[in-house]
Specification:
The protein has 373 residues and is mainly alpha-helical. The protein is built from 14 helices and 6 strands. α11 packs antiparallel against α12. The N and C termini lie far apart (98 Å).
């Protein structure tokens, strides 16, 4: 009896020892990899993972990419055509971006683009560094990956990732398990992103600022999307589980209330966008109406903002004039920057291809080329 007991105990001990010495299972290896990623990933790792998330479909991220394969190729082709080279490095400067956009707008809009281009490029530079601050991690000049990440936001494709559907989940028998496969990012935050991108760069390092929102929720949103994922069905880290990583990578973000934009610069930008939308050339009556309506919305916004006090404007001051102000600006910028995704010219989308972009409100543009034919 005693012999049998000791034999059984020894056998169990041997099995336990073998289990401890056994190679890691694929799940064990993944869990270790994800833990190491959370502890050690750098800002450059975040940038690289963002490009993968924006351009690759499949189970890696559990949803479709922001860009279609032919659009990724178009971005690369345009980048190669206009890029400058220094040794093995290929890049775009501020002048390169202006040179390209001038080929996409009609002659009558070129003079309107130049006075507001500093503001437009400020927006580009903001999203090239996003979700990190330009002052701390500048991305200038731009490589092709920088340009790709930027276009996801300025061309309106971020809605393909930053859904507005709230918490998602799946059923396990009779139990509904909530998880964050999508951000559930409200429309208001997309408006804030556009506002922040148009504001002058905050020259101080965020680590030196006294008032910061911590953790940086823009960065947390990105981390939720780019975190390593074993499979679509495996529970992924929720936002609170990534707060510590976000705090390691960023000391926080400036509060929205601390940021202002120059009224004069905003009016000059609106003047260009109104003219640009009014010059959309299309034989499609629906497209003409959409372009005309957006131009009038932007024109009304410009008129109302002109009445405000000169100087700097806060988000709330602009929002009080028109709660949809930044929706309209974002739509117009998306029309301009979709020229990087569609080879037919501004506002163009091939009928045989997917829609140019989704705005989260099912409002899609199918304009023909803005340039005279």
């Amino acid at each position: 009896m005693t012999s049998t007991f000791h034999s059984t105990r020894n056998c169990l001990g041997l099995l336990a020892w073998a289990a401890n010495k056994a190679p890691f299972s694929p799940m064990d290896k993944f869990i270790k990899y994800r833990r190491d990623w959370v502890a050690n990933a750098s800002s450059e790792d975040v940038f690289n993972a963002m490009v993968d998330r924006l351009t690759k479909d499949g189970s890696t991220y559990g949803s479709n990419a922001c860009f279609r394969p032919h659009e990724v190729q178009t971005i690369h082709d345009i980048f190669e055509t206009y890029c400058q080279e220094a040794g093995t490095e290929k890049f775009w400067t501020k002048d390169t971006v202006l040179k390209y956009l001038l080929t996409q707008v009609p002659e009558s809009s070129k003079e309107g683009l130049k006075p507001c281009f500093d503001t437009i490029y400020r927006c580009i530079a903001y999203f090239a560094s996003y979700p990190f601050p330009q002052a701390e991690i500048p991305r200038d000049p731009l490589n092709c990956d920088d340009l790709t990440r930027t276009l996801a936001f300025v061309a309106g494709r971020d809605h393909d990732i930053f859904t507005t559907n709230g918490v998602q989940g799946s059923w396990d028998g009779d139990i509904f398990i909530e998880h964050e496969s999508g951000i559930g990012r409200p429309t208001e935050l997309s408006r804030e992103m556009i506002f922040r991108s148009l504001a002058p760069t905050i020259l101080q390092r965020r680590s030196e600022m006294k008032i910061l929102e911590c953790p940086d929720f823009d960065l947390v949103d990105i981390l939720v999307e780019i975190q390593p994922k074993y499979s679509d069905s495996l529970g992924n880290y929720a936002r609170p589980q990534l707060f510590e990583m976000a705090s390691r990578l960023s000391p926080g973000r400036p509060p929205l209330q601390s940021i202002e934009v120059c009224k004069r610069e905003l009016l000059v930008l609106l003047d260009f966008l109104v003219r640009m939308m009014d010059e959309i050339q299309t034989s499609d009556s629906w497209g003409r109406e959409e372009a005309f309506d957006l131009a009038r919305e932007l024109e009304f916004l410009r008129i109302e903002l002109f009445k405000t006090t000169d100087g700097l404007l806060s988000f709330d001051e602009i929002n009080n004039v028109n709660p949809e102000a930044f929706d309209h600006i974002q739509l117009a910028l998306a029309v301009l920057f979709n020229t990087f995704l569609q080879t037919g010219g501004m506002g163009h989308v091939n009928n045989n291809e997917d829609a140019a972009y989704g705005t989260g409100r099912d409002r899609l543009f199918y304009f023909r080329s803005l340039r005279p034919t």
